[in-house]
Batch of 2 targets.
Target 1
Amino acid sequence: MKRVLIVSAAMGEGHNATGRALQDAVRRLWPEATVGWLDALDVMGAGVGPLFRWIYVSNVRRTPWLYEFFYRSLWRMRWFAEASKRFVGVWCGIRLNRKIRAFQPDLVLSTYPLGTAGLDWLRRHGRLDMPVGAWISDFAPHPFWVYGAIDLNLVMHECAVPPALKCVPGANVAVSAPPVRETFRPGDRDTARQKLGLPPDAFIALVSCGSLGFGDVEDAARELLDAHPDVVPVVVCGRNTRLLERLRPLAERDPRLRPLGWTDEMPAYTVAADVVVTNAGGATGLEALACGRPVLMHRPIAAHGRANAALMQDAGLAMVCERDGELASAVRALIAQPSRWKEMAEAATRHCEATGELTDGLLALISAARERSAAR
């Protein structure tokens, strides 16, 4: 029995969403393999997951300056990045070692940087001889994402390769298609709107800021309603029930607004949308690109959110709306100039076509795993 191990973490839904896309691909390419999962934060110890999630959420919501300071310090002070990665690598690696030895995988795939740190430490200490790949699902890599002992570090665009190599010169870096499930692909907008009960001739703006509903989501909804009478904002609140409750009175005053809680129909909503409005540039942004939809980055969250937004804009795949009114202006411009919308949508489609299939990078790792198994 062949075994593939996915190392992820429940830090929002983005890392696990990447893992599910990889799991689907493994089952197509290597159907005889069993797929197992480890949550790196749970492996690191009881209470680590809740603590790290609380720190992350608190930083983003209450002390973004502190999160930004930590992020910039990783770039500015190489010694600080290396010391932090070694510390986490030892902590996670020692505990991962027991789990990996018990599962005996032929291939390990990581979607979470702290988990990759542990895998890198194990490889450097001779305790990990199977192939290892790491999918960097942030559009912009940062030093905690990239590791030199990992067989393959997968980034999301050619323009992400230089910053990845700046993080770790000499690391093996390749470009992957967006690691999203197969249901996120270009489709017929009218059919999707009919299925979801959305007006066929409206300008649909899908607002999705992750499962935690981070950021200035209410302000985004108000700006979109004020932008143009044809705009219908569909706001996915995820698991943020407080955000959903705050939006309901606004929806009662203006029924164009469609607030939603958790939904399993995100592929259909993405295809139905004219644009996707988000603020972090992780899984939601990648899902939009996979469906050929332009991305509007509204007030990107601190640190990795701002870095993702800047790189996506440089690649021609997003518009960054940082100040008051910029989101409404961007939407009005896209409505007034359909050719501009078409240009962004085509850029997203070309990017996905240029990067090939998600399976390209995975196939190389599976081939290496098969060769290793045959040689044993």
Note: The chain has a mean pLDDT of 93.
Target 2
Amino acid sequence: MIGKLIGALVGGEIERREGGRGIKGAVIGAAVAGGLRRLGPIGLALGAGYVAKKAYDRHRDRTRI
């Protein structure tokens, strides 16, 4: 279940980078979730790290003047 959530977040981040909000992010997220599951705990850590870095960068850019 955690893998599906991280996959959805990764798909959302990729779709946000591309500038759209649509089915493409969901498809990418589903593919990422499958790949993360195959990699096991390392894959979950990589996916969570990617999402955390993107959130941190977005927060840092917002607080910069």
Note: The chain has a mean pLDDT of 77.
